[in-house]
Amino acid sequence: MTRRQFAGFIAILLLALSLRTVFPAADPPWRMSVGVVWHDEGAWVHNARNKALFGGWRQDEWNPMFVAPVFTALEYASFRAFGVGVRQARLVSEAAGLISVALFALGIRRLAGVNAALIAGALLATNYVYVMYDRAAIMEALMVAFMVASWYCTTRSAARASWGALAGIFAVLAFFTKAAAAFYIGALGLLALLELADLAGERRAAAAWTLAGLAIAAGVIAVVFVFPHWTDYRFYNWQMSVTRKPSYDLRSIVDRITNFPIYNDFFTDMWGEVIAGLAAAWAVLIGWRRSSSAERLLLLWLALGVLEMLIHDVGNERRFVQLIPPFVGLTALALGRGRLLPEDVAAVPRRTVWLAVPAIF
Fold it and tell me: Is residue 336 exposed (0-12), middle (13-18) or buried (19+ Cβ within 10 Å)?
């Protein structure tokens, strides 16, 4: 970076920090497009607070640590270091949000240069919905931060394949922060399998490292945490998180599909990123073989994230937070390059272009 670009990067990080930490005890807004439920904060830090105040995780029959063990552990670390309180509880999300802005900008820099990185950092630092969830002591900010960290490691794996293992580990940590991140594990795993199957490709080593990271991290957490607490883990993650959710009959799925674009103001709050991001996603899709692994992962992140929501739940505004980084990343790639579609898109066969249109639609 030049001195001016570096100063711009630091300014963006300072802006991100200030937006996330000013008036830290203020309640989140209630407006529909954000939908932060502030009474959930006490519920989700419950076990961490128990451990910090009374020396034991379990004091009653509400134990969200079996749903969000990584989030619970970091909340306990904050309470242990700084005391128990709303400011300390929100510190985990604030730090995660700031780190995600930095890592996302650095990842985009590897793909499209410094200007694109500054655009990505500025958009993610100031996105209204993203900022609001980074200010609340619930799991979304930390979950998405782990996804961003995983994606950043994928950008690094192009030069050094072993970074793929960290990409897999961070993806598993995102899942054990909140199980809604299962779609991201699917996106990362699918990308790795596709690239591993490309016998003529140069990305097979990184793909193998990624699958190894996924397998090792999942295995370690299963042995250390899941299997020893299987009854509780199954109750909280299946009966509490799946069976009590909306129905999965055809009519319910159709309702979710038709409600998805209009349920709240999420898309209109970031209309520019939605339009530019979809155009850039189309470019990645029709130029799949020439696209980098990180660009492919942004596309799969967005596509499988949307698909998971349509199948499972679009009625909760917090679920839309997971779509913000891929929209921002694709937009930054397009704006950083100065064009919505890459220059070589004209060489793509027209049949391929038309086959890609329904997927983006």
Answer: buried
